[in-house]
Amino acid sequence: MKDKKLEKVDKEKEFGKNDENKLSTNTLGNTDGQGQKRQDIRDTEEPTAIGINASNTNTKSTKGKRRKIASLVLAITPLIILAGMVYFLSSPFGQNLINTGVPLPEVTIEKVEFHENQVVAFIRNTGPEQVMISQADINDRIQSAAIEPSQVLPRLSEAKVIIPFFWNTAEPYEVGITTSDGTRFSKVIDAAAPAPVPNINQFSVFAMLGVFVGVIPVLIGLAWYPFMRKITRNQYNFFLSLTAGLLVFLGIDAFLESNEIAANNLAATFNGQLLIPVIIIATFLGLFYLSEYFGKRAESKLSFEYEKEETEQNDTRRLNAQNNFQESSVNPLSKTRVSSSSLTNPLSNDMIGLAQKEEEKNRVEKKEEEEEKLTRLIDKRELIKPLTLSLMVAIGIGLHNFGEGLAIGAAVLLGEIALSTFLIIGFTIHNTTEGLAIVAPLAKTGKLMIRRLVAMGLIAGIPTILGTWIGGFVYSPLASIIFLSIGAGAIFQVVYALAVWMSKSLRESSKTNKAESVDLGEITGRSGSRLLASQGKSPTAAIIAGFIVGLLIMYITGLLV
Question: Where are the domains of the chain?
Fold first, then answer.
């Protein structure tokens, strides 16, 4: 019975195993079938998913465009409202609603020229309404006059009033213009002088004036370069500070001169005295950005050239190594023979030693070459800053001299100054110090750069010639104010750069003096360092003294002009 029971149990186990095998087989089959079905579904769904992604992308781009359009509409809406309000106020209904009085006319006589047997007045309507010119007079005597292009002047338009009149040189005259409502406007000329006529002779006169006033003085100032190269660190700080004093005086002079032109020759409508600080600040920030940009660009260019040269040398070394390896691998048996013979032949050992020494020598030469290249790179980088600073000084002085040339040419045109030997001598002495300002930042570079210095001198001086031409033939008060303000902003930016450079030089001087005092203290004791300190080697004192001396030099030489 037990055997039968055991057989029954064994059969049940076998039957269970068979069922499990069938079940697993069916499960695997079902799994394979489901996998195949899933794969088919994926294959059919992939194009659908791609289409959904494309539609999502289109939806996002559409939403982005809508947002941009909405932002643009929100930005334009205030302008549309403002334009509508301006249109309403300028319409007849708006004018009747607001205007409660009669606007006063305003006519500005910008300049007066004296030609042969006639006086020409250039006028501009700077009032709120159009005006009509009814008559002209000289010294309160009504004169016949021709008005071009028309007697009626809309707001801010200009006209030329030609008055036939026999005038005398160096005599004062008052030119008057009367409008249709009886309002009179006048301009006083202290001394009549013939207006320059654009011809070769007059161009040559103004060119020579610009050369003597701007170009030659700057080039004379560059002659201090050999002396500046031999000065000590404290003396260098003194001359840098002196340069800053010179430039500060020039900047203040340009600012005051532009304010004087705005007050006397420019209509109040143009807000010339507000325009001046705006141009100065804009020029300062613009040149500050340009100086930083060009300085970083030059440094990156040097780094790129250094890396390029290093890469080329590495490629050459790698190619030589590959060639040597190929030559040695052509006949490996010969190499083996040499190595085996070197065990018994002392001469081959000497050759191996020589080869090792040669390799060590090449390694040392390579290291020295890399150090030399790195030193050259550092020297070039250290040269960039003073060179850029001198160039910015030259540009700032050039812009100032352009405005100065405009003022000189206009003064000759308007008869405010007479060309004389004393005047030219005064300008020459006054502007000679500008060359010193260009030279000072390059004094400690250790390299002789005559060509670059001459180029910078021409950059600073030649604009004077252009200014005298423009000011003498086509004088404009607004243009004079703009260029004088640009010159002032450029000069103040250069002064800022000089201040940064002087702070660096001051730190270097402090370190040098401290090291010298420590060395002297080690040799002679504490009394030695006290002795050195008592000798007056203070860079701060040199900087303050240089700045004050620079201001005084420009003031004293300005008395000659």
Answer: 43-92, 107-189, 200-325+382-558
Place of tokens 């801010």: 156
Q: What is the DSSP string of 68-97?
A: HHHHHHHHHHHHHHHHHHHHHHHSHHHHHH
Question: Measured between alpha carbons, how far apart are the two ends of the chain, in Å?
Answer: 144
Cα(196)–Cα(409) distance, rounded to whole angstroms?
A: 9
What are the tokens at 226?
Answer: 């050999």
CB 143 within 8 Å of CB 136: yes
The pLDDT tens digits of the residues spanning 436-488 come to: 888 888 876 666 678 888 888 899 999 999 988 888 888 788 888 888 898 88
- Its pTM stands at 0.67
- Measure Cα distances from 421 to 96, 209, 213, 296, 355 in Å: 62, 11, 11, 46, 79
Torsion of CA 354, 355, 361, 365, to 10 degrees: 150
DSSP letters spanning 330-343: S-HHHHHHHHHHHH
Supply angle C-alpha 180, 183, 188, rounded to 5: 120
- Class of 107-189 in CATH: mainly beta
Query: Taking a C-beta distance cutoff of 8 angstroms, is the pair 123, 161 a contact?
Result: yes
251-284 pLDDT, tens digit per residue, is 898 899 889 888 888 888 888 899 999 999 999 9
Place of tokens 């800022």: 496
Beta strand 146-148 pairing with 141-143: unpaired
Which region among 286-295, 315-324, 391-400 has the lowest average model confidence (pLDDT)? Answer: 315-324
* Residues 250 and 554: beta-carbon distance below 8 Å: yes
Q: Is the dihedral of CA 300, 301, 306, 308 positive or negative?
A: positive
User: What pairs with residue 179 in β-bridges?
Assistant: 133
Backbone angles phi, psi at 188, to 5 degrees: -100, 130
Q: Are 259 and 485 in contact (CB under 8 A)?
A: no
> What six digits make up the tokens of 472?
């003498």
Residue 121's DSSP bridge partners are: 112, 161
Q: Count the residues in the chain.
A: 561
Q: What angle do CA 127, 144, 193 make, to 5 degrees?
A: 80
Distance CA 531, CA 524 (A): 10
Q: Which residue has the tokens 């402090």?
A: 510
Strand 146-148 to 107-115 pairing: unpaired
The DSSP bridge partners found for residue 109 are 123
Contact 217, 428 (CB under 8 A): yes
Cβ atoms 236, 542 nearer than 8 A:
no
The 3-class secondary structure across 142-189, one letter per residue, is EECCEEECCCEECCCCEEEEEEECCCCCCCCEEEEEEECCCCEEEEEE
